[in-house]
Design brief:
This protein has 100 residues and is mostly helical. It is built from four helices and two strands. Helix 1 crosses helix 3 (40-48).
Length: 100
Amino acid sequence: MKSNLTQFQTCVLLEILKIPFGETRTYGDIAKAMGKPKAVRAVGTACGKNPLPFIIPCHRVVQSSGKIGNYSMGGAEVKNKLLTMEQNIKQSFKIQQSIY
């Protein structure tokens, strides 16, 4: 499978894989973690180009305001449901750290 992602976008998606189950990070957090604190919008663009949204959890990336933001697999409503489901599972099973 050929990827149409830039090297930066691939790095963003790899950074997103580090977000623990049931937790969120902001687009700015991802940019800072990559050493590119001003690349917030580019992080958002990379999320939108995620070719494997059920594998690479872009739904765990939110706006700095706390607003859910958009999600390529069904919009903000689906993103919110996924986050709520993960948080409920984490709480129900008392998961203290990432299960990945």
